[in-house]
């Protein structure tokens, strides 16, 4: 199988000081993260993720994409330096006693690190996992995931190129790198709700406020990271919730409203997000918002 590289979950703006990070992480894992399952499945299918795949998940969050790759037989390693709370949940989710890690592919290896690609290099170099560099002559990873969509918060791609550059030495030459971004605003009904974040957080004074995704966001990151684009795709990822309260909790768990919470207060943000959701509320009380996400496959030099 061709070596492979990809990253993980929805973008976080700088978290407001009074945000309950533990609750937000739990809401992300229990409500919001599953909205991206069609995206994870599409990428895994296109890249033929299986028993020969060694995945490095950048920004792995609470680990759902890693779990899905592991269920296909892949060896998975996740890293996340931004949310220790999500990393804790990922470790719980990927613990061998938490699911049948043997399945039809035999036992697979899973690890989650609260840190950077440099920390992964140290762990792999210590000889912890199968396929580590130097043990078989192969690179440590042939799939690196960056599944956290960019292009929705001003400056949210800053640092991603550096993160990719740090991870690249752990993968082989020509390894695919898959970056993920929000689709065009006209294809994402959630955009109308996310505009609440911009309205409440003065974009000229508050960093991390929402802005519409741009056509070349992913290509620009790939170029800065020295990667060569090699294909792309779009995936429908509708956001569906049991009720408005669940929708508010799920959307706030993305971190896209943290700047608004910092600029105003939690109660006002909750109220205005709930009001913005009314057009998408169905007769049975559920909330349904069609969206499209885009992924770019690039390759390491």
Automatic annotation (TrEMBL):
Keywords: Methyltransferase, Transferase
A GO MF term: methyltransferase activity
Presence of keyword Transferase: yes
Chain intervals for the UniProt region annotation (Disordered): 1-22
Organism domain of life: Bacteria
Signal peptide positions on this chain: none
Keyword Transferase included in the entry's annotation: yes
Biological process annotations from GO: methylation
Name the UniProt record assigns to this protein: SAM-dependent methyltransferase
Record organism: Streptomyces spongiae
Native organism taxonomy: Bacteria, Bacillati, Actinomycetota, Actinomycetes, Kitasatosporales
């Amino acid at each position: 199988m061709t070596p492979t590289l990809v990253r993980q979950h929805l973008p976080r703006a700088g978290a407001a000081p009074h945000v309950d990070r533990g609750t937000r992480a739990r809401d992300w894992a229990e409500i919001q993260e599953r909205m991206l399952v069609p995206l994870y499945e599409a990428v895994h299918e296109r890249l033929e993720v299986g028993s020969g795949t060694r995945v490095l998940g950048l920004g792995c969050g609470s680990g759902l994409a890693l779990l899905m790759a592991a269920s296909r037989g892949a060896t998975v390693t996740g890293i996340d330096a931004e949310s220790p709370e999500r990393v804790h949940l990922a470790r719980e989710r990927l613990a061998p006693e938490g699911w049948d890690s043997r399945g039809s592919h035999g036992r697979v290896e899973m690890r989650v690190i609260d840190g950077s690609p440099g920390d992964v290099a140290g762990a792999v170099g210590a000889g912890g996992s199968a396929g580590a560099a130097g043990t078989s002559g192969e690179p440590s990873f042939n799939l690196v995931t960056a599944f956290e969509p960019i292009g929705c918060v001003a400056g949210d791609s800053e640092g991603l190129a550096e993160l990719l550059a740090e991870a690249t030495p752990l993968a082989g030459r020509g390894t695919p790198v898959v970056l993920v971004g929000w689709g065009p605003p006209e294809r994402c009904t959630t955009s109308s709700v996310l505009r609440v974040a911009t309205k409440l957080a003065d974009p000229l004074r508050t960093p991390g406020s929402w802005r519409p995704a741009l056509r070349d966001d992913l290509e620009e990151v790939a170029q800065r990271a020295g990667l060569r684009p090699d294909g792309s795709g779009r995936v429908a990822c509708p956001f569906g919730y049991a009720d408005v309260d669940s929708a508010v909790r799920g959307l706030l768990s993305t971190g896209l409203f943290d700047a608004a919470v910092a600029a105003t207060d939690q109660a006002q943000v909750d109220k205005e997000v709930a009001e913005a959701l009314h057009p998408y509320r169905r007769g049975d009380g559920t909330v349904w918002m069609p969206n499209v996400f885009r992924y770019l496959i690039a390759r390491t030099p």
